[in-house]
TrEMBL record:
InterPro entries: Glyco_trans_8, Nucleotide-diphossugar_trans, XXLT1. One of its GO terms (molecular function) is xylosyl alpha-1,3-xylosyltransferase activity. This is Xyloside xylosyltransferase 1. SUPFAM superfamilies: Nucleotide-diphospho-sugar transferases. GO terms for biological process: protein O-linked glycosylation via N-acetyl-galactosamine. Pfam families: Glyco_transf_8. GO terms for cellular component: endoplasmic reticulum membrane. It comes from the Eukaryota.
Amino acid sequence: MEPLHACLTFTVIIHDVSELTEKLFPIVEAMQKHFSAGSGTYYSDSIFFLSVAMHRIMPKEITQIIQVDLDLKYKANIRDLFEEFDNFQEGAVIGIAREMQPVYRHTFWQYRRENPQTRVGEPPPDGLPGFNSGVLLLNLEAMRRSKLYNQLLEPGMVQKLTEKYHFKGHLGDQDFFTMVGMEHPELFHVLDCTWNRQLCTWWKDHGYSDVFDQYFRCDGEVKIYHGNCNTPIPED
């Protein structure tokens, strides 16, 4: 049998980061002040909001993209992840896994105090713990078509939601997706935790040890390990 790689052809396109940032900046400028820690910090660059507006800057013939962080280890065929696009419900434009630490329990502290019965920031399966953007499925065609999603990119809508939720983040695109997901969960296809098994435990030692395991638990065979916050990934 002929090796699989001999049957495939690939096109590799290298993009200039400065050119992408130049295109992105007018779209994401307003949200940067809400979702980064300030000028000069790690997530302050427009490139960390690339996924938010990918549908605006990629050629129309590109309809679906998987965007991933570099600190990943794959235990399954990436083709199986691509097939998750077929599971998107009507109206969903982005596939993303839940955040596996109580990051947003902390970030939404004021909203949670004012709304003690809220699901915002609560752990799964019934809560809304927020999202982690280490593994993203972007249905660019659906993002382009979605009137709702594109309205949410407008500075006025970003301001309205950040005021409602008293939101001030520092993690770029995943902060935006998390906040929007609290208001419009129908825009997201939630990936199983095994597609983005995050390993960082920073929040366990910073005030949330009593609830940490409720967020961190992930049952099932891991398909992608995510060594976020420089956490070592298990060896084979």
